[in-house]
Amino acid sequence: MSRTRKAVLGTTVLAGTVVLSLSLSACGKADMTKQSSPFAAAKGSKSVTLSVQTWVGAQSNVAVAKYLLEHKMGYHVDTVQVDEIPAWDALSQGRVDAILEDWGHPDQEKRYVKDKKTITAGGGNGVTGHIGWFVPKYWADKHPEVTNWKNLNKFAKQLRTSESGNKGQLMDGSPSYVTNDKALVKNLGLNYEVVFAGSEAAQITQIQQFAKQKKPFLTYWYEPQWLFNQVPMVEVKLPKYTDACAAKGAKDPTSIDCAYPTTPLQKFFNTEFAKKGGSAAAFLKNFKWTKDDQNEVSEAIASGGLSADEAAKQWVDKHPDVWKSWLPKK
Amino acid sequence: MSTASAPPAARRGLGADAPKAGPVKALLDRRGLAKLLLLAVAAAVLVPLLAAKYGAAWPSSLTVDVSGPLGRTSDWIINNRDSHWLFVYFLGHLSNAVVLSVRAVYLVLLALGWTGVTAGVTLLAWRVAGVRIAATALLSFLVSGALGMWVPTMQTLALMVVAVLASVVVGALLGLAAGLSDRLFRILRPVLDTMQVLPAFAYLLPVVLVFGIGVPAALLATVVYAAPPMARLTALGLRGADAGVLEAVSSLGATGRQRLLTARLPLARKELLLGVNQTIMMALSMVVIASMIGAAGLGDRVYQALASVDVGAALAAAVPIVLLAIVMDRTTAAAGARLGADSATGGPAWLRGWRAWAGIAAVTAVVALLGRLAGSLVWPGAWSVDIAHPVNDFKAWMVDHLYSGVPVIGGTADWAAHFTNWVLNPLRDGLTALPWYGTLLVVAALAWLIGTWRTALTAVLAMAAIGVLGVWKPSMNTLSQVLAALAVTLVLGFGVGILAAGSKRFEAFLRPVLDVMQTMPQFVYLIPVVALFAVGRAPAAAAAVVYALPAVIRITTQGLRQVDPAAMESARSLGATRWQMLRQVQLPLARPALLLAVNQGVVLVLAVVIIGGLVGGGALGYDVVTGLATGDLAVGLVAGVAIVCLGLMLDRVTQPTERRTTGKGA
After folding, report:
1. Which of B184, B243, B534, B608 suits A295 as a labelling partner, its CA being 20 to 30 A distant?
2. Rounded distance, CA B228 to CA B270, Å?
3. CB neighbours (10 Å) of residue B135?
4. Does residue B344 belong to the interface with chain A, where contact is any CB pair within 8 Å?
């Protein structure tokens, strides 16, 4: 009885002392820029930490890089799921070593790459990204005029849902994604309400449901995306993207009235990792593939029911010619 | 034990004692009328003035724009994080200490291998809680391994061990202070009250900003969430110590410290252990939410699976979380029960005292060594079972057959649309259209009738703060979702609770179901509810109902069961039918429990409705997600504070306790 109590108390005291001594023993400067995960390299191996963003394309990059690093190069790879902007933060603090797919964050780039120099640009990953408004092909085939923004107001009635009230619904996804949709709807005078699905998972689920019932919908969406193989979609033409419009938007985001740009997707590395990361850093710098490659892996993960690791293995087995050139020369 | 496995319910229930009167009764008694009259007079004077000056929408002259200062704060933190002394000499060390401790525990777990960990935990459970729970533990760890989740389970376990230890230490210290000093007790009580109604979702952002994404931030958020029950129960235990015993000890000439160590703490051991139990449950419920800020382990697997709409994989990671929760809950609860009953620790001598601990260590070491010799530190891959595919097939079937076009009753999507059109929309529009001073008056009236003028003041100030922060409209939207989900939860919960109270067999059948519903991470519900109810506010409400239901059912059942049998007997002898007995005897007598259920329901529903921001719930939850995802302190923090205010207001309005009069209500 009393022994149990003493044991409980004893453990508590012991643990308290351990924690306390840990913090005291490290008196002096603590470098917040060198904060790795406690789970990294637990087996005493060489280790890399990659950040995974929530969309499946980003997961595919990481899955393939992870598979190759682990099976062909003897690294241990940890992955952390982080949203886009916090990922930049994590990269600068050294919590993750690399971002393999960035969709353009000029503010962050200025702060960390130019000013603080804690992050180094790693070049493109070979895929070009494009954001736009999309409608399902089965609907566009019936009403070809819907693919121009000028006609959208005529269709608003068909796109009403209980969330959008008496306006048409334009579905957006995760709040972390780059979007000007609210400004666009207002500046183009559209009778639409932007409804945020809140996460890509919710958005995909909803699109699949609409498609199953062959219902019309209008959604913010992007390429490359595996879902196009399941639910063919057609892009709605928005006013042409121009540099002048982009410059105006950079000053005041509420004034944007043109389409989204086409973005070659970029890789970014923690500066220290880029310098001292050895063959892993060299490998990730070489990592470059195509939209089709990425989609093949993405679809295997997201609708083929394979785990990320299985999907990566399948692709790696099929395309040795692509990845062999990424391996650093010894 | 069923209360112990109902963490949020139990934690609220512990602090709150029996309410004095229900709202209806309060309305009828004279003091209630007087209060209402006074408010009516105040309203008659104030409303025309306010209406003339400001109008119905929250006046912009009464709002404060905090985005400037918050933006500057966030920039300052990012720019100084690598150089300022606050970070370099204090927070940095804290962060390092967390990383080192978690890593140490993780390495030990890995070194033990799956054989060692399983054996160790099983033996430990056997020693402190008996054979049945040991068997549960053994089975749980084997299942976690078989699901292919061994490594994430160990990561989560390592994080939990450190988080629970830290929470227990912090909570116990706070509780000790509150238990020994009346002044500290008075200061601390409202702080702990507030911490308990805070939805964890609301304060992820500030923690992330300071510590960055990763384990230290996740661990600290967990400690903030999990320490209050420990503090509360420690204070409760110390204050509740038998005065006679304390006097006897003092008369023997014991010093204050001796008195604490030899009498007060030992007398409070039951509360202390219950505190540990509650802390563990709270910490585990944070596992998935903390993964949004990089906590790795099982929570991260759930979160990643959801991102690719893979319910099966999410479930495979959620099951070990549920199992961990059940094992830890049962073990600590049983240990607590044994502390109370001396004789229960019987059994052979080798099972007691230091020999038992040594035995456990020895056997664990041997088994770990055997595992190592057999060459499998991590769970052998060939022994894995795949549940993801069958689960996904089942989900697909469900969606195909239930989503729409079911004859007569319509599909789930139709229900969701009706619910949105007929309940959520009118409620939201009504609340938004209601003049702000009207809302404040209603809140004041409700809170005053149920509690004291202090309660009313807190509730009104909380609501006013929301207006001042300039988020009145989204807050009303969130409030409408909470109210709608609460109504559904209460109807279902009271109904099922009454049935369960009437039939022991039904209750026994219900118990494991409720256990699972309660420990299953809320995130796991999110994708299935979207698949069934389409994107929007309806799935958020549905997820909230599923999450809050178990607590309401449990409290209702318990309340009805505890009705004085004598009262029931006399009613029966008077020839009352079952329905009459329920309506006229059981329900009125169980009113305190029912009111507690309402209060619990409100707090739990709010916690999930805001997570519903991830599935299109919009409003405050969406703003918090936006803040987290874009590192925007101005959006995220303001929404977080508004959620906290909303929670405080809802808690006060539904909590019919006069806290001031309870001597030991910590």
Report:
1. B534
2. 17
3. 13
4. no
pLDDT digits 0-9 by tens, B162-213: 999 999 999 889 888 888 788 888 888 778 777 777 777 777 888 888 887 7
Residue B147, classed as helix, strand or coil, is: coil
A204-228 burial, b if ≥16 CB within 10 A, otherwise e?
bbbbbbbbeeeebbbbbbbbbbbbe
Model confidence over B84-124: pLDDT tens digits?
A: 777 777 777 788 888 888 888 888 888 888 888 888 888 88
- DSSP-assigned letter for residue B451: S
- CA of B11 to nearest chain A CA: how many angstroms apart? 22
Residues 102-121 of B with CB under 8 A from A: 102-103, 106-107, 110
Structure tokens at B653: 């309005």
Write the single-letter amino acid at B29.
Answer: D
Which residues from chain A sit within 8 angstroms of residue B269, using beta carbons? 5
Give the span between the Cα atoms of B390 and B379, in whole angstroms: 22
Residue in chain B closest to A199 (alpha carbons) equals B614
- In terms of DSSP bridges, do strands A233-236 and A192-196 run parallel, antiparallel, or are they unpaired? unpaired
3-state SS string over chain A? CHHHHHHHHHHHHHHHHHHHHHHHHCCCCCCCCCCCCCCCCCCCCCEEEEEECCCHHHHHHHHHHHHHHHHCCCCEEEEEECCHHHHHHHHHCCCCCEEEEECCCHHHHHHHHHHHCCEEEEEEEEEEEEEEEEEEHHHHHHCHHHHEHHHHHHHHHHHCCCCCCCCEEEEECCCCCCCCHHHHHHHCCCCEEEEECCCHHHHHHHHHHHHHCCCCCEEEEEECCCHHHHCCEEEEECCCCCHHHHHHHHHCHHHCCCCCCEEEEEEEEEHHHHHHCHHHHHHHHHCCCCHHHHHHHHHHHHCCCCCHHHHHHHHHHHCHHHHHCCCCCC
Please, what CATH class does the domain formed by A129-262 belong to?
alpha beta
DSSP state of B660: G
**CB atoms inside a 10 Å sphere around CB B577:** 10
CATH superfamily entry for domain A47-128+263-325: Periplasmic binding protein-like II (3.40.190.10)
Expressed in angstroms, the distance from the first to the final Cα of chain B is: 21
Contacts of B531 in chain A (CB under 8 A): 205, 209
CA B551 to chain centre: 10
- Bridge pairing between strands A192-196 and A168-172: parallel
Task: List, in sequence order, every residue forming a beta bridge with A133; answer none if it has no partner.
Answer: A220, A236
| Domains in chain B: boundaries | 410-657
What is the rounded radius of gyration, in angstroms, for the C-alpha atoms of chain B?
26
Tell me the C-alpha distance between B210 and B178, whole Å: 29
Q: Across the interface, do A30 and B95 touch by the CB < 8 Å criterion?
A: yes
For residue B622, CA distances in Å to A205, A208, B475, B536 come to 18, 22, 11, 11
- Residues B133, B331: contact at Cβ < 8 Å? yes
Q: How far apart are CA B168 and CA A11, in angstroms?
A: 11
- Tally of CB atoms within 10 A around A266: 19
pLDDT at res. B339: 65
CATH number given to B410-657:
1.10.3720.10
State how far the Cα of B434 lies from the Cα of B436, in Å rounded to an integer. Answer: 6
ipTM: 0.74
First to last CA, chain A: 64
Q: What is the DSSP letter of B576?
A: -
Residue pointed to by tokens 């308290």: A16
Q: Considering only CA atoms, which of B101, B146, B111, B99 is closest in space to residue B295?
A: B99
Spatial CB neighbours of B343, under 8 Å, sequence gap ≥ 6: none
Structure tokens given for A181: 């949709």
Where in chain A are the domains? Answer: 47-128+263-325, 129-262
Q: What is the mean pLDDT of residues B147-156?
A: 86
Do domains A47-128+263-325 and A129-262 share one topology? The answer is: yes
Question: What DSSP state is assigned to residue B535?
Answer: S
